[in-house]
Amino acid sequence: MYTAVIIGIGNVGTHLSRALQCSSEVSIVQYLNRSQLSEGELSKRIGSCEAQKFTTKWETIKEADCYFIAVKDDEIEACIEAIPFHQKIVAHTSGSIALSSCPKQKNAVFYPLQTFSKSKELNFNEIPICIETSENEVYKVIEKIAHSISKKVHYINSFQRRQLHLSAVFVCNFVNHMYHIGNELCIQNNIDSSILEALIQETAAKVKILSPKDAQTGPALRNDKSTLQNHEEMLEGYPKYIKIYRLLSSSIASLNHEN
Amino acid sequence: MYTAVIIGIGNVGTHLSRALQCSSEVSIVQYLNRSQLSEGELSKRIGSCEAQKFTTKWETIKEADCYFIAVKDDEIEACIEAIPFHQKIVAHTSGSIALSSCPKQKNAVFYPLQTFSKSKELNFNEIPICIETSENEVYKVIEKIAHSISKKVHYINSFQRRQLHLSAVFVCNFVNHMYHIGNELCIQNNIDSSILEALIQETAAKVKILSPKDAQTGPALRNDKSTLQNHEEMLEGYPKYIKIYRLLSSSIASLNHEN
C-alpha cells in the first residue's frame, strides 16, 4: 500500500480524494489545502472521518510515497518545488501542463479526463485516467494506483494530453454552453426547459453508436435556408447568440462539401 | 381504436411508425411515401409484416381517422391539401411549421422533440410529444394517442414550438458539431477519440442535476488566459475551429459579468 498526500482539494482534488479513499493501493495520510475550510465544507469534500488529516500549513507536510497535486495550473510547479522530501512520486492532475522535469522528484501525471463539480457525485471507475512518467518503475506504481480506482487507464504523453484537453473544451465546456443557450431561449419564452432533457440525453447517447459526423442532423446540414433564416430572425434580440448560430451553422454546412 | 395513415417514412416517420405500431389507440392502415423503397429498406423502416401496407401512389390513399404527416417542411401544406377525405384529423410532425388552417381538415400538430437517425433505436416512451390543435374534440384524440406512446405529452402552441425547435438546434445539432470537432482533433493527433466518451456522457448527465449555468467549467469561465492562448495556438492549423473557439470562449466569459 502506498502512502499519499493530496495537495489541493478543489473540484478535482475532492473527487480524486473520494476515489483514492476507496483504493486498495493507497492510504491517504494528509490533505493539504492553501485556504482554511469550515468543518461542514471539509466534511462535504473529504468526509468527516478524514477531516483530522487536513491541514493548511505547508510546514507540517508529511512524508509519503506519492503526492497528488490538484491545484491551479500556474501553481503546480511551485508546489512540486515546495515538497521537502525528495525522490518521491509527485503527480499533477492537469490536462495542460507538461510532465515536470524537477530533478528532485519522480515526476508523473495523473490526469482524470472528466468535468468535476463539487455537488455532483461521480463514478470514478468509468473515468479515463491519463498517466505519464518518464521512469519505468514510477509508471508501474502510477498504473497500479490508477487501475485501483478506474477501469480506463491510458498512457498519454504531454503533447497528446494537451490536445485531449483542447478536445475536452469542445465536447464539455462548449457543449454545456449550448445547453445554457437552449435553456435561456426556453425560459425567456415561458417554456419549461426540462422538455429539452430527453433530447440532450439522446444526443449524447447517439454518439456511442454513430460517429458525430453520421449523427449530425438539423437545418444547417440539410441546407434548409428557410428555417435558417427564420431562426436568425427569432434571434434578433440576442446579438451574441445570432453570431454563434451563424458561425456554427456555416461550419456544419461546410461538412457537406468535405464529402 | 383510431385508424391512421402515415405519410412520409423518413427519419421521423420511421420512428413514429414504429411507436404507433405498438399503440393500443392506433391501427395503422397505410404507409405512403413519395419514393419507392426496396423490400430490405422497407423491412428495416416499418418491419416486414407491415410492408404490404406500403404505397407510393397518392391515388390509392385510404380513408382513416388520422393522417400523420412526416414530410419535409416545405411539402407539408401540399400534403394536407392533397388528402381527398375531409374533416379528418391531420397532424404534421414539424417543429417549425405553424398549425395548418386548412378548412377541409381538423388540423393538429404532433411534434416529437427528438433527434432521429434511422440506424439508432429509440425509446419513444421518454420522448416529449408537443401537441397542438384549435379544437377541443381533436385535442382529446391527439392527447390520447400521444399518451399511448409517450409518458411526456405537452401542449405547446405554434410560437412556443418554433422557439423549442430553435433551442433544439443549440442543444442537439450544435452540440453534436462540438462532438465532431473534439473527435477530429483527437483523430488528427493519433489519439483514440473514445477516451472522450465518459466526458461526453457526464456533461449531459450533469445538467439533469445542475443548471447549465452552474455546471459550466473550463478555462473561459475561469478567465485562464494562459490556457486560452495555448489553445488558440494549438488551433492555428484550423481557421474554422479557431473562430468557434474564440466566439464561444468569449460568450462563456461574459456569463461572469452577468452575475
Instruction: Please give the share of residues in helix of chain A.
Output: 40-55%
Mean pLDDT of chain A: 94
Structural class of chain A: alpha/beta
Radius of gyration of chain A (CA) equals 22 Å
What is the count of DSSP helices of chain A, taking H or I runs of 4+ residues? Answer: 10
Distance between the termini of chain A: 54 Å
In oligomeric terms, what are we looking at?
A: homodimer
Tell me the β content of chain A: 5-15%
| Protein chains sharing the most extensive interface | A-B, 93 and 93 residues
Question: What is the helix/strand order of chain A?
Answer: EHEHEEHEEEHEHHHHHH
The strand count of chain A comes to: 8
Low-confidence stretches of chain A: none
Q: Name the shape of chain A in a single word.
A: elongated
- Biggest sheet of chain A: strands, sense, closure? 8 strands, mixed
Strand order of the largest sheet of chain A: 3-2-1-4-5-6-7-8
Can you give me a brief rundown of this structure?
Two copies of one chain form a homodimer. With 259 residues, chain A is an alpha/beta fold.
What report would you give on this structure?
The structure is a homodimer. Chain A is of the alpha/beta class. Chain A has helices spanning about 10-20, 40-45, 75-80, 135-150, 160-185, 195-205, 210-215, 220, 225-235, 240-259; strands at about 1-5, 25-30, 55, 65-70, 90, 105-110, 130-135, 155. The first copy, chain A, has an eight-stranded mixed β-sheet, sandwiched between helices. Chain A starts with a strand and ends with a helix. At the A-B interface, helix 5, helix 6, helix 7, helix 8 and helix 9 of A face helix 5, helix 6, helix 7, helix 8 and helix 9 of B.
